[in-house]
UniProtKB/TrEMBL annotation:
Catalytic reaction equation(s): 5-(2-hydroxyethyl)-4-methylthiazole + ATP = 4-methyl-5-(2-phosphooxyethyl)-thiazole + ADP + H(+)
Pathway participation: Cofactor biosynthesis; thiamine diphosphate biosynthesis; 4-methyl-5-(2-phosphoethyl)-thiazole from 5-(2-hydroxyethyl)-4-methylthiazole: step 1/1
Binding site residues for ATP: R128, S181
Name of the molecule in the record: Hydroxyethylthiazole kinase
Gene Ontology terms for molecular function: ATP binding; hydroxyethylthiazole kinase activity; magnesium ion binding
An annotated GO BP: thiamine diphosphate biosynthetic process
Annotated residues for binding of substrate: M53, G208
Function: Catalyzes the phosphorylation of the hydroxyl group of 4-methyl-5-beta-hydroxyethylthiazole (THZ).
Family the UniProt entry places it in: Belongs to the Thz kinase family.
Gene: thiM
Cofactor(s) the protein needs: Mg(2+)
InterPro entries, per database record: Hyethyz_kinase (IPR000417), Ribokinase-like (IPR029056)
């Protein structure tokens, strides 16, 4: 395992991504669940992006056309999502726009399984999920030989380290990045893997920390490569959540407010400094 220092390209890339998003204010089109849609949009705005949320299949192409990147989350599937989510992914892929997949509750029900299998062909630029979702998606996409991984509703019952080989298989298939979230995050592509420590466990006490993290990855994917985008958003979440609890005991909803505040307040150098302290490069076996 190697520690990172400010001279490393990865830290420079991360802080440049933060600067570029604040300069460019990229529009991100999202197809996401109605539990956390408001947090997703507000988190995207807080880091410097712009948000547009859609549901109808005929909006897939025009949304991909005007957006710099697309976010697809399968959290609360309605019957129409069987058409609109694959249409959104197809439109993003055909328009050469990066897109992020959040396979919420992968494995729960035949419809979700069928939608997730359908999305495989469009090779997401970034896949973001908790450990069980990542393991289950690798299973659904036929990349695992052994059936494992157990999503409990939208929660993980597996550890991030247990998801490492599934994450790598997914990244090898898509050619993009995969981010596994939890107490410690794992962010990798087929060549490099990073572990990220820090952050507050209060993120587990609000709904949509993971969904909005995926939405924020899509913001950064608009201005940089898949791995840097996934890393930048992940560092932002750990750093802003630490800041939100720095004043002492805080209730869950006030935490959410303070957390989004810090997403808007942290500077490129704050994020670079946090990366230097909390990121480690893991040699792939
Ligand atoms: N115990 C923890 N300590 C620190 N950070 C955490 C902890 N648990 C989760 N996080 C952070 O919370 C964010 C969301 O990760 P999580 O794994 O909870 O997503 P999720 O299960 O998909 O969430 P949701 O489905 O509620 O949107 C990530 O930034 C992750 O690093
Ligand atoms: C709680 C919940 N249920 C479906 S989606 C969602 C948001 C967190 O994944
Ligand atoms: Mg989730």
């Amino acid at each position: 395992m190697n520690t990172i220092n400010t001279a490393d390209a990865v830290v420079r890339n991360i802080s440049t991504a933060v600067e570029e998003v604040r300069k460019q204010n990229p529009l991100v089109g999202s197809w996401t669940n109605f539990v956390t849609i408001n947090l997703v949009a507000n988190a995207q705005l807080a880091v410097g992006g712009r948000a547009a949320m859609c549901f109808l299949p005929d909006e897939a192409e025009p949304l991909a056309f005007v957006s710099k990147s697309i976010y697809v989350n399968v959290g609360t599937l309605q019957p129409i999502a069987c058409q609109s989510l694959p249409a959104a992914a197809k439109a993003a892929a055909e328009a050469n726009k990066p897109w992020v997949l959040d396979p919420v509750a992968a494995g729960l029900g035949d419809t979700r399984t069928s939608v997730l299998k359908d999305l495989k062909q469009y090779k997401p630029t970034i896949i973001r999920g908790n450990a069980s979702e990542i393991i289950t998606l690798a299973n659904l996409w036929g990349l695992e030989t052994e059936i494992k991984g157990k999503v409990e509703g939208v929660d993980s019952t597996d550890t991030v380290r247990e998801a490492a080989s599934s994450a790598l298989k997914l990244a090898e298939y898509t050619g993009g990045a995969v981010a596994v979230s939890g107490e410690i995050d794992l962010i990798l592509n087929s060549e490099k893997a990073y572990y990220l420590t820090g952050g507050s466990e209060m993120l587990e006490c609000i709904t949509g920390a993971g969904c909005s993290l995926g939405g924020v990855m899509a913001v950064f994917a608009a201005v940089t490569d898949a791995l840097t985008a996934a890393l930048t958003a992940s560092v932002f979440y750990k750093a802003a959540s630490d800041k939100a609890v720095s004043g002492g005991k805080i209730g869950t909803f006030s935490f959410q407010t303070a957390f989004v505040d810090y997403l808007s307040l942290l500077t490129p150098s704050d994020i670079a400094e946090y990366s230097e302290k909390h990121l480690t490069l893991q040699e792939c076996d």
